[in-house]
Amino acid sequence: xxxxxxxxxxxxxNAKEAITYYEKxxxxxxxxxxxxxxxxxxAVLKIGESQVMISDLISEIPYQKGNQVNxxxxxxxxKQAEQIYHSLIEEGKIHLxxxxxxxxxxxxxxxxxxxxxxQVFTQVNKHL
Length: 128
Fold this sequence. Notes:
The chain contains two helices and eight strands. By secondary structure, the protein is α+β, with helices and mostly antiparallel strands. The chain has an eight-stranded mixed β-sheet with strand order 2-3-4-1-5-8-7-6, with helices on one face. The radius of gyration is 14 Å and the shape is globular. InterPro entries: Glyas_Bleomycin-R_OHBP_Dase, PhnB-like. Pfam families: 3-dmu-9_3-mt.
């Protein structure tokens, strides 16, 4: 099974501006973007051989300087995503219960017992 850990930037309502900035400064290319009104629900930027995910913060996670970078654990296997998520919530804090989203059949956000915030993401499209 394929497993990736991808940086995920959570922005305080200015994700669209950040995307434009990274396009200009880092020559980033938008591989995918899903909007919700004027807010970015989910975007993937290709930067060289790497990728970064970016979105505006969801209401379940209050903005605080320092918490805007998460690690997104990405797998094409829903069962693996669910197993990882349930392991991380032991002694951790759930921010978003594992659920289906327009961009992922199994997606959840949790801070583990060490204070690291993870987004667990089931990837159905290589560009997400």
